[in-house]
């Protein structure tokens, strides 16, 4: 920005002579002085710059010490779920976050949201990370996934009368004929099919299992570890999911699916994932993740 002092002279046209000084021409002149308030404007400009710089430094410091993280609130024990005893979020994912925070000298704030909203918030930078996201989610545009910290085992859970019509180990092509139901916001591409093939009008596992048992759908796709973990949330639902009325079938030709942390696919998000990955790899190599998980499965 340019700052100036402009002086313009015009002839005096009044009825009385104006005072004059020194060697000025007897034709009286007046001076119209137009001043651009240079000093004040420059000072205000510097103040604005200092304020913006202070805000940038504060934001950078906050990002470096505290991370805002979201997780889907569909209660996926033993990975992330609400403890019936304390009412607080717990599980393998929380333990891994604590380890990452310790190694990177971070703290974190965790918020449970609907899965679809959590994913969208991470893409838009409203949260630095999304926790407990499957491999299918990491492939969405606008996201970048960390190293997988756990490998999942996909299975098909169908009404026993429907299982009799299926191969002992169904392939994704065998699932096309089934009326499948699932949870809102999850990626069923993890099971080798399109999420559009699944009725995802349910939000909780207790509702999903009841929906299957009532015959409103023929089967549900889920991971072995999560169905086993239903006992940690709701013993009754866990018993229903493993009852004789529901058959559990392993699936063939399945993509490799793991659990990840996800960040936005931006320079800042990619840098954050690069910092997280060495910690996750080390935990895996030291078999710490299996040790953490066993604490919950033994319950």
Overview of this structure, please?
The chain has 299 residues and is α/β, with parallel strands linked by helices. It has a domain at 154-250: Periplasmic binding protein-like II (D-Maltodextrin-Binding Protein, domain 2). Helix content is 38%, strand content 25%. The protein has helices spanning 38-65, 92-104, 115-123, 135-138, 160-163, 205-213, 224-233, 235-241, 267-285, 288-297; strands at 5-11, 29-35, 66-72, 81-82, 89-90, 107-113, 129-134, 143-145, 150-151, 154-159, 180-183, 198-202, 219-223, 246-250, 258-264. A hairpin with a 6-residue loop joins strand 4 and strand 5 (89-90). The radius of gyration is 32 Å and the shape is globular. The N and C termini lie far apart (68 Å).
Key structural traits:
299 residues, alpha/beta, D-Maltodextrin-Binding Protein, domain 2, five-stranded mixed sheet, disordered N terminus
The helix/strand class is alpha/beta
Q: CATH homologous superfamily name of the domain at 154-250?
A: Periplasmic binding protein-like II
Q: Count every helix, treating DSSP H or I runs of 4 or more residues as helices.
A: 10
Number of strands: 15
Report the order of strands and helices: EEHEEEHEHEHEEEHEEHEHHEEHH
The whole-number mean of residue pLDDT values reads: 83
Computed over alpha carbons, the radius of gyration is 32 Å
The biggest beta sheet reads: 6 strands, mixed
Which spans of ≥5 residues are poorly predicted at pLDDT below 50?
A: 1-42, 49-63
- Measured as a percent range, the helix fraction is 25-40%
Highest-level CATH class of the domain at 154-250: Alpha Beta
Silhouette:
globular
CATH architecture of the domain at 154-250: 3-Layer(aba) Sandwich
Sheet-strand content, in percent, reads 25-35%
| End-to-end distance | 68 Å
Kindly identify the CATH topology of the domain at 154-250: D-Maltodextrin-Binding Protein, domain 2
